[in-house]
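Lecture notes, part 5. Sequence design as translation. It can be helpful to think of inverse folding as translation between two languages: the language of shapes and the language of residues. The source text, in structure tokens, appears below.
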């Protein structure tokens, strides 16, 4: 598995899958998803979730981890029961391996919480025997991540001694107010625990700062994100030659609780920010919000992709444009993934047309 220069963490939720599915094939080829496994809506079996993901991202390798943000409601079923066995500490590896064996493109993150170094070795052995790469994902998200197992330095030393290069390293920080807050930690961990690894091993520093509260945004506002600056700082501090960009594709981890329905708005990703059109007082309609985006100086208008065309058709008042918030989320995710996959070198639409793959949807 060749890990691309953009690693994106995606939940298996309708907006993520719709935004991903509508990308050109050439864009999909330039990103590596790290998928967080949870049941697909109320369906069974649990493998249905991976089937749905692979419909959106067909015939391409990806990393898979257990979605520890997912919460089981009061309607149990087989899929939820299996997820619970994977989310428990320690995880049920027999269930994990059975699920993975049915999906040849799924490359496992090691399930390390309250497991021993021998379990780590066993999981690596399984991955290799089944022609998979693997991921050492250090979940450092406050309140959700088990952190770095004490035996990781020894395992990494073993991998370095054998010259292993069939894995990736991900530092996951979940939601943070500002990505630059984790730069020092990620740099320190990389130098402390991974200084011996082969230079071709990709190291990703992942987090999301997508806003949780939109009440501060009025009219047409810009919200900058600093994930690119984060990677620049970690590269400079560590000198590791393959520090790769990572984010959550303009999403946040699952959250639960009662909140009011969000006001209508249109979000538009640029290369380093999100432009948000909404009203603090009253409620703007989707068409007017889209019009604010398309006349703003941030509007590109020539990406040649589904998400931007959807905003354009919404501004024009066309049928089948954005008429729900989930459809807006999908358009936003679609645009962000495309921009980050081609960061600094966006192709012309006619180049995309030639390179699109027939994904047979």
């Amino acid at each position: 598995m060749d890990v691309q220069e953009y690693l994106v963490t995606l939940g298996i939720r309708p907006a993520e899958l719709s935004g991903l599915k509508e990308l050109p094939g050439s864009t999909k080829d330039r990103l590596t998803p790290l998928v967080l496994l949870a049941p697909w809506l109320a369906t069974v079996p649990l493998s249905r979730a991976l089937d749905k993901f692979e419909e959106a991202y067909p015939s391409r390798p990806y990393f898979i981890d257990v979605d520890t943000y997912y919460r089981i409601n009061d309607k149990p079923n087989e899929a939820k029961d299996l997820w619970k066995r994977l989310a428990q500490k320690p995880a049920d590896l027999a269930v994990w391996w059975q699920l993975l064996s049915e999906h040849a493109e799924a490359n496992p993150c090691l399930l390390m919480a309250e497991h021993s170094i021998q379990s780590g070795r066993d999981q690596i052995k399984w991955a290799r025997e089944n022609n998979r790469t693997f991921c050492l994902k250090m979940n450092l998200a406050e309140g959700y991540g088990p952190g770095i197992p004490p035996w990781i330095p020894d395992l990494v030393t073993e991998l370095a001694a054998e010259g292993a290069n069939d894995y990736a390293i991900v530092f996951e920080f979940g939601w943070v107010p500002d990505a630059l807050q984790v730069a020092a930690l990620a740099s320190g961990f990389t130098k402390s625990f991974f200084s011996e690894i082969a230079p071709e091993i990709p190291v990703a520093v992942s987090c999301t700062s997508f806003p949780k509260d939109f009440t501060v945004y009025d009219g047409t506002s810009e919200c900058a994100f600093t994930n690119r600056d984060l990677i620049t700082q970690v590269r400079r501090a560590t000198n590791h030659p393959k520090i790769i960009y990572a984010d959550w594709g303009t999403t946040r981890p699952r959250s639960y609780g009662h909140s009011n329905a969000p006001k209508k708005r249109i979000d538009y990703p640029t290369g380093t920010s999100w432009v948000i059109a909404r009203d603090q007082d009253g409620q703007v309609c989707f068409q007017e919000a889209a019009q604010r985006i398309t006349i703003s100086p941030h509007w590109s208008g020539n990406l040649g992709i589904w998400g931007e065309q959807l905003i354009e058709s919404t501004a024009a008042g066309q049928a089948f444009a954005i008429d729900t918030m989930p459809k807006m989320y999908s358009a936003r995710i679609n645009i962000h993934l495309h921009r980050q996959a081609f960061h600094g070198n966006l192709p012309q639409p006619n180049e995309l047309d030639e390179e699109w793959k027939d994904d047979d949807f």
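The translated text above is only one of many valid answers, since several sequences can fold into similar shapes. The first strand starts at residue 6 and ends at 11.
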